[in-house]
Amino acid sequence: MHPVEQYLKNLSEIHCTGGATAETSYYARLETLLNEVGAKLKPKVRAVAQLANMGAGSPDFGLFTANQFQKAKDDKPLKGVPPERGVVEVKGWTDDSFVTAKTEQVSKYWKHYGLVLVTNYRDFVLIGRDEAGQPLRLETYRMADSEKEFRVLLAHPRKAADTQGERLLEFLRRVLLYEAALTNPEDLAWFLASYAREARHRVEFFATLPALDGLRKALEEALGMTFEGDKGEHFFQATFVQTLFYGIFSSWVLWCREHQGQPNTPFDWQKAAWTLHVPMVKSLFDQIATPTKLKPLDIEEVLDWAGAALNRVDRTAFFAKFEEEHAVQYFYEPFLNAYDPELRKELGVWYTPPEIVRYQVERVDRVLREELNLPDGLADDNVVVLDPCCGTGAYLVETLKRIHKTLKEKGGSALTAQKLKTAAMKRVFGFEILPAPFVVAHLQLGLMLRQLGAPLDHDTDQRAGVYLTNALTGWEPLKKPKDEIPGLYPELREERDAANKVKQEAPILVILGNPPYNGYAGFAMEEERDLVTAYRTTKRAPKPEGQGLNDLYIRFFRMAERRIVEKSGKGVVCYISNYSWLEGLSHTGMRERYLEVFDRVWIDCLNGDKYKTGKLTPWGESDPSIFSTDSNREGIQVGTAISLLVRKEKGAMKDGLRCGAPRFRHLWGKAKHAEILRNATGQEKAKYELLSPSVEIGYPLMPAQVDAGYLTWPQLPKLFPVSFPGVKTSRDEFLVDIDRAALEERIGAYFDPSLSHEEIARRWPSVMEEREQYKARKIRDYLVRRGRTKGHIVRYAYRPFDVRWLYWEPETDLLDRERSEYFPQVFEGNYCLVSQQKPRRDWSRPQCVMPIGCLDLFDRGATCFPLLVRQGHSANDLFSMEAEENPPNASPLLQEYSKQFPASPDLVFHHAIAIMHAAIYNQNNAGGLRQDWPRIPLPAKKKALLDSAALGRRVAALLDTEKPVDGVTCGKIDARLKPLGVIRKAGGGALDPGAGALELTAGWGHGGKGGVCMPGRGKAEERETKDEGQTKAFGDATLDIYLNGEAYWENVPLAVWDYTIGGYQVIKKWLSYREKTMLGRGLTMEETEYVTEMVRRIAALILLQPELDANYQTVKAET
């Protein structure tokens, strides 16, 4: 429960007794709230009630830090130690006179303690001292304007916590930290972000006011975009507030430089614009920070608080760390992460680690020298550099450092500083669309040039070449220039024109940086949308599939490629980005084009992918994101790569490509940061392998291992042309169940006209939750009128080895994707082979199911290929043979092949299952399987096909959990399987299901966000098996898998436990859904024994592996 919800709930309970006193009865609840906040601080802060009289009466609470608490072994605690973080004075919640009283009258304790929090449980006023030692109202927070309104909050504590909880906790955290020394950039970033959040809340509250309309329209015009819808409005407001606070922070940094040696001189944020010398930055701040803008938005007070925080900073200690750690960069990401982590995620704003920035700059410098014959590299006066998404300017700073280093290496001179400044102004450019990092970039570059002895002369309007602009538009002059908007600020117009001049006239030779990973929600940019058209077609490679070209970073690649290749004719592109383009099905045209137009391609694959590898190396060790930092240890979820693309003025074509042998290397594990740094500094030369990208699989720019002949074999859809995506309900918790009776009850209630929508929503919220594409009430109204369709509670292949019940509804959107064309193909005897085109992680062997299949049978989306196609299906016109009642799902290619072997129509179907379940098939063709549909060899000899199909039938039988398998689940059990997975009682004896012995409580699963089942660790004890036969078949490690403290499944080989299909660890996944907290009951005896059955089925599949591998080798040799 949220701490504020608990606080209000407890206050309400005490109040409802009718016997509470106005103040003291509620002390403990306030103490709990304060301690909840204080426990998360370093050092911790603890509220101590009923403080002893230290000469000014007894405050209700003292706020002590952890280091003030003496160790228990000390016999006599020191007396009279004042609370380090001030005191608290409490009044009854009917008394709010102190909120409006003169400051000196608010509390009698401020003279003695210096800092007092006065509260009546709903209003909070922090009183301190000003520079003259007089009482000063520092910060305030009001939960409700009156006692009556407060009682409404008490009646609805959860709702109150949802709307005010985080703001109140933030306020209290600031109170408890107010007296703490501010010396670290990260701590100041948190304080400013906290004030920024409060300011944004107030801006959102007054969002309908016209105060910001002019600025919004001006930015839209200057940047060539519109802030559309709620997300666009949220983004604009967030940007407005960020820019305001970063303007103040930047001004403060520059002001501190000008007031060194004056520690007692206070900074005045209202004069901040005087220290912001770049016209565009000054204009932005002027437009935002005027009284006419701030007063209607009620944020002037919050800016006063921010100014006070800046004046509490220990400047000497702060700037020692600020300079030493390059904290301008470190300041922006912690600020944005604390200010709005969801916005940060949406924007794809990730601070690039310095070793990556340095590596990219050094690599660019080297190829300029070695590939483009420019001996001075980046220091050559003719090399124009652009970072099109420069953020806070990290790449620009590093580029200037590299130029400075080269100039020094050449001997240096009294003109070195001026040459560096000229480069920063005239040929090292940065574009940025977000005003806040734009402000910081100018601050950072200005400080860096000053440090290197080349300060910008603001009296002559010198500025670094960083422009507030949309990097993806404005590269070509408009054929029909738009009429100027009268309200466009002159500085914005000048900024736009200067940026367009760089785009259209500067001879850009280098484009580098870290493009954003996501689009800006709520932005509309027409000119951008056509950027990637060139990548949507191919000449030789397979056509692009999917939506990957819509990712924002692809537009930055296209902009760079077009500028370097089509306009400059030579140059370098170096980006760190999402690595999906290296082998994605959507990016075949992009890769083909790059091999056509660039002469050299280097790829540094940094891995660190959550979805594809689980952030693990191939040898099972941790493989963190390269973006993992101390402030953001998780990094980002997708894998990344550094791409270095070089275009020479003259290049040779071979087979239609300028680059036939791209260079590639993998970097894995925690050591990759250090390896990159060694490469950047020249201590170690990077070692690459030469690739020979295959046109058949779309020119992948990663190693793609395949067997000889693999690329000539037909893909699954070329054999079985009819297929269906699995069913997606989007409401599994209502429409799917392990127990049929429970599902029947829910569906019966749903169709009961006597039950209101509100009652259904109370019982099962998800089915009545209104969404843009799901009109819950209209859908239920229609279905109740129509009446329930009989016979539509059907078996449902939900996950591998996990068949449940589904209510299948053919009409409306009750099911998100009901697959009405698939449902008629589900009938007795008609198996579906379930596979997928491109895996999220490693490729998975297929499944074989007869019930209707779920989209999530594979973790990136399952496709179901039926054995037979029922007549009347729209795809029947694909078949040329005279049909039986339900003809086989066979393409013309397969029909022609089958004429050689007149036999059962399921031969190739089961042959394909056998081939894809061979471990060696997966191992030898991993590169191709990772790229596209699996390919199936068709043997020329009948015996090879028959033998393979027979093996495939055995595999299919083991995968069909609805039917018993002789020797595995029924009859005389194979001796090798008999001892596996047997249910036992710890210590021996019989289990009593009625006494809870079969309740699954070992922690295999729990409910996550939105009720989603999340896997747990459970309890599994590993040991070595004594059975030589078992060791030979499965390895020597085996497990005892516990249901609870009493019962366990004995002797589950580790190889069986680890077995995966569709991206899921089969047995563990099944258990996670049936933890008692998820299932609501214990397991039945049948369910308990089904686990034994799963163990044996999987073990039997593993035992088949030698035969499956040998079969694949035979088939391959005869294809």
What does this entry look like structurally?
The structure is a single chain. The protein contains 41 helices and 33 strands. A hairpin with a 4-residue loop joins strand 30 and strand 31. About 1% of the residues have low confidence. Among the domains are: 180 residues, tt1808, chain A; 126 residues, no CATH class; 212 residues, no CATH class. Helix 1 packs across helix 6 and helix 10 runs parallel beside helix 20. The radius of gyration is 34 Å and the shape is globular. The strands form 8 sheets. Strands 10-9-8-11-13-15-14-16-17 form a 9-stranded mixed sheet, with helices on both faces. A 6-stranded mixed sheet has the order 1-2-3-4-5-6. The protein has 1119 residues and is an alpha+beta fold.
Which percent bin holds the helix content? 25-40%
Could you give the order of strands across the largest sheet? 10-9-8-11-13-15-14-16-17
What best-fitting shape do the alpha-carbon axes yield? Answer: globular
Helices and strands: which structural class? alpha+beta
Low-confidence stretches: 873-884
Number of helices: 41
N-C termini distance = 64 Å
Report the count of strand segments.
33
Mean pLDDT reading = 88
* Major pleated sheet: 9 strands, mixed
User: How much β-strand is present in the residues?
Assistant: 5-15%
Rg, Cα atoms, Å: 34 Å
Question: What's the layout of helices and strands?
Answer:
Elements: H1 3-16, H2 27-38, E1 45-49, E2 61-65, E3 87-90, H3 97-100, H4 103-106, H5 110-113, E4 116-119, E5 123-129, E6 135-142, H6 147-155, H7 157-177, H8 185-205, H9 213-223, E7 226-227, H10 229-258, H11 279-288, H12 291-297, H13 300-311, H14 315-324, H15 327-339, H16 341-347, H17 354-370, E8 384-387, H18 394-409, H19 416-426, E9 428-432, H20 435-451, E10 466-468, H21 490-505, E11 508-513, E12 523-524, H22 526-529, H23 552-568, E13 571-578, H24 588-597, E14 600-607, E15 640-647, E16 663-666, H25 672-681, E17 689-690, H26 716-719, E18 724-725, H27 732-735, E19 736-737, H28 740-750, H29 757-763, H30 776-786, E20 793-799, E21 802-807, E22 832-835, E23 847-849, E24 852-853, E25 863-866, H31 892-898, H32 907-916, H33 919-924, H34 926-931, H35 942-959, E26 982-985, E27 1005-1007, E28 1013-1015, E29 1020-1024, H36 1028-1034, E30 1037-1042, E31 1047-1053, H37 1054-1057, E32 1060-1061, E33 1064-1065, H38 1066-1072, H39 1076-1079, H40 1085-1103, H41 1105-1117
Parallel strand pairs: 3-4, 8-9, 8-11, 9-10, 11-13, 14-16, 20-24
Antiparallel strand pairs: 1-2, 2-3, 4-5, 5-6, 7-12, 13-15, 14-15, 16-17, 18-25, 19-21, 20-21, 22-23, 22-25, 26-31, 27-28, 29-30, 30-31, 32-33
Helix pairs in contact: 1-2, 1-6, 1-7, 7-8, 8-10, 8-13, 8-15, 9-21, 10-11, 10-13, 10-20, 15-16, 17-18, 17-25, 18-19, 32-35, 35-41
